[in-house]
């Protein structure tokens, strides 16, 4: 038997089998809204960038002005440093000039003091020699000074005096003898060895009151002098011998007035 067909069922089946309806064109209002939204976003970005520039621009100007001020201050400080360095150099130069001038003055004063001391010694020498209260002495050696010329050569200056016979001329010959040690042994160097010649003649002297007699002697290598003896052999009268320690002979001291007291200088 055929089953009866229900009208509702047939209608439902037909609706389900029918195809879906195709979408229509977009709504123009939605398109306008989308463009309006995009424009709003762009405008927001533009206004934000402008606002950011407005906010940061004063800061940049301030930093730039500060940098400019710092550079100007640095230039001023550099100028001050240069001026101070120039002042220091000027003061240093002035101080050096003052030091040099002061040293020259001190040297000049020292030379003047030495000259004054020498003049006083000369006065004392003359007073002892020819003064009314001076002690009368015959031929004698007032002083001797040894000055090195090289390792072995020495220049000597002796000062001879006499005031016993005023007006009388003392003449004769002078020679030296030097005592010392060499290789741990005592050794005496006579005039011939000191002058490096056999039978070397003595140095002539001739004076009334005083005279400086100068000459050169030569010491052997390794010889250590200890004492120097001055021998005077006058043309008339007894020989005179007077010794000095080597320390006394090499000491820088005033020997006697320059010149010749009434005689010829050798």
Automatic annotation (TrEMBL):
It comes from the Bacteria. Residues 67-94 form a coiled coil. The chain crosses the membrane at residues 35-56. Residues 1-27 are annotated as: Disordered. The keyword Membrane applies. Residues 7-21 have a biased composition (Low complexity). InterPro entries: DUF6776 (IPR046703). This is Transmembrane protein. It comes from Marilutibacter chinensis.
């Amino acid at each position: 038997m055929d089953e009866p067909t229900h009208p509702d069922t047939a209608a439902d089946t037909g609706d389900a089998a029918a195809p879906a309806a195709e979408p229509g064109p977009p709504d123009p209002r939605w398109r306008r809204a989308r463009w309006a939204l995009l424009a709003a976003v762009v405008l927001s970005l533009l206004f934000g960038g402008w606002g950011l520039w407005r906010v940061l621009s004063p800061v940049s100007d301030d930093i730039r002005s500060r940098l400019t001020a710092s550079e100007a201050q640095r230039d001023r400080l550099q100028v001050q440093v240069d001026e101070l360095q120039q002042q220091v150099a000027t003061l240093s130069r002035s101080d050096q000039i003052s030091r040099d001038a002061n040293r020259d003055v001190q040297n000049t004063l020292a030379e003047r003091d030495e000259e004054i001391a020498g003049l006083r010694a000369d006065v004392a020498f003359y007073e002892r020699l020819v003064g009314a209260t001076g002690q009368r002495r015959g031929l004698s050696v007032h002083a001797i000074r040894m000055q090195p010329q090289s390792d072995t050569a020495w220049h000597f200056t002796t000062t001879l005096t006499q005031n016993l016979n005023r007006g009388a001329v003392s003449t004769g010959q002078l020679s030296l003898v030097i005592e010392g040690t060499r290789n741990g042994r005592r050794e005496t160097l006579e005039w011939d060895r000191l002058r490096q010649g056999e039978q070397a003649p003595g140095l002539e002297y001739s004076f009334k009151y005083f005279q400086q007699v100068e000459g050169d002697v030569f010491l052997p290598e390794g010889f250590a002098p200890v004492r120097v003896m001055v021998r005077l052999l006058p043309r008339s009268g007894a020989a005179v011998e007077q010794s000095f320690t080597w320390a006394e002979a090499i000491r820088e001291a005033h020997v006697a007035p320059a010149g010749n007291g009434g005689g010829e200088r050798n």
